[in-house]
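>> received
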Amino acid sequence: MMKVPVSRLWHAKPLSRIALCRTDAWLLLLYALCFAALHWAARPWGGAGFFSLWYPPAGLRFAVLWSRGPRLTPWLVLTEIATDIATGTIGWSDGSALQGITGAARPGLTYGIAMALVRDVSRGRSSTLALPPMIFGVAAIAAPALNALMVIPFEAWLPPEAERYRSGVDVAISLTSLAVGDLLGILVLAPPLLWLGSVAWTQERKPLPRPGLRPILEDAIVMSGCLLLTAALWRAGLGAQTTPSLLAGAWIGLRHGRTAAWFAILSQALVFLPYSAGTLDDGTRLELHLGIASAVLVTWLAGSFSDAQATARGALDRRNRLLYQAERLKTLRAMSVAVIHEISQPLTTLAIEAAHLRSATAGLGEDIATSAELVDRKARTLSELVRRLRRFGGRDVDEPSALPVAMLIQTACQIVGFELRSQGAKLHCGPVPLELAVQAQEIELTQALVNLLRNAIAAGDGQDIGLMVEEDGENLRIEVRNPAAHIARESAGMGIGLTIARTIVEAHGGQLWREDDPGTVRFVISLPLLIGTPA
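>> returned
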């Protein structure tokens, strides 16, 4: 069984965190080959005290861990160590094997830790940095930074005879070059790799956005102008200046988002990286790459901020639609209360007269008695329905109160009864303990459960639906089960039923998540139980 809570991505069973499936095994094999090739390709940007100021294997490592999750970290570390041994990067004859293994294990471990920390800290936050477009950028900064900072603690475990491998190198230059090379490798290589991975490893294709001709021309003019300015400054003897590219990247990213920002980064890399791989001294190369890293980082963060703002605006629009729907429901509720009030008095009189008619016609024949009994029964049914509607629309339900779970289940099942019959489906409801109760707003919680049932009915395509209620420690567990091989996409409406249900459940101190089995989809509501029996 695969359990995917709505608000949890990393909290899983201990064995499932490090389990290696067949897909991951093939991925790691491909990773080893690409890692070795990219490691070899990064050597032209090396120098004294650092291996490379542009390290594309860092982008490959980041893309794999970002797409597959930090659970793959131990296996990725072992793959990198094995690859370094196979390619001769870790030597055995000169006694540096321990240093090589330690150095090979450090990047993968620090990247996995950085991603787990960033995702955990951002979970549940409402700031702009916690939005998905910005989380990637924050992790892209945190991973190289943590990798560079952990160099000294990792090397502190080396034996004294390994000191000769650390001496004679300026620590500040070494750590800075390491962070700069990893950062450039991530921001240049990871975004296209993640897009290719989404195409190759998922069934749902995610095409690149197709901008109009005007934004493309605008970005091309801005970037070309800044690169021409860079060339003019270089001809004037001022060297390769990255400031114009930084300004162009910031403009493009803020205007058109991450996709345009990455193409701006690509153009910067195509201009500066071949030049920096030439005959430059180490100091000049490091200074140039510091400028390139600044321009690339500003470009990507500007694009991420633009996309994050678009995401926030979309969330605000959805909230406004929810508020609009709430106002409509409030108006309909007021109208319903008025209508119910108008018909309650005549209906009460009708029920009384029907009961009197039944008693008065008891001895007038079987047909008359049967008809009178039918009228009396229907009148009592309508009176009970009106009574429940008046209670359901009253003001007292606006405040949380003790809600018997059996009443909640009964009301929700009655509401979706017509939809079940129209689909030719049945709702199989397990036993509901009568003593269970929750502290809740009846209308809202009923709406949440009804939304889940309607989603299950729509996805079931005429198949039977299951509804199970059980006590789970101090919590109530309500499970809506839909025996379907897939989840049908909604063909009408705004698709916000599940969002409303999740919001209502979380407002009551509970959780809503989805559990998948082969051929079965289950949505589970967990709510704190009310201690004691409701009045």
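>> The longest helix spans residues 282-360.
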